[in-house]
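Recap from last week: sequence in, structure out.
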Amino acid sequence: MLFSLRFRFQFHLHTVELVYQNSLLHTREELAVVVVGPLTLNVATLLLVLIRWGCQLTFGSVPSFLSKFIMALGVWTVFDPLAVFAVDAVLGRLTYSAQRPIADAAKLAWHFHRTQHSHLPGILITLFLYTVLLFCSLTILYIYFLRFHNDGCLLDVFQRLHGMEGSFFIPQDLEVSNQELSYILSKAEQWRGFGGERRKVSSPLPK
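Predicted structure tokens:
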């Protein structure tokens, strides 16, 4: 009966209730509880980006819904700590209670208040951890959005905007024959993605 009062783990649509006896945990264990949620999201997003990269190397394209899902997950990973903090604040979890869950952002503050009688070390460590996690989330999202989302269209635009003029190859007249150019355009028109995507091709050449 005592254990059931001290430990509770329950899912809700808007939050997760995790109640445990904080005094039994060391600092490193409490720290792990704080970062496990955002860190899991970062790892999951990174794995999906690697899968996306492997599919691009193997098949040349991936279903559009997968790209959109990875993009949505990456954006949510960036804002997850802030969203969790907002929900915890609304539910009144920033204060200490033995019977109610404590907000992830306040766990270390109350842990150091109990062990060292000061909230400051816990607040500083929490801010540092969330800053590192935010940097990792933004880096993963930036790499995916620039290089992989929509088959790297943004990377092409980025390179065209920031590249030096001498780095672009612009063929002179007659360097590419009409037959060769027609073949390249025909291959581009025949390309199909997993979800039936097509490449839009335009050329001044007569059909």
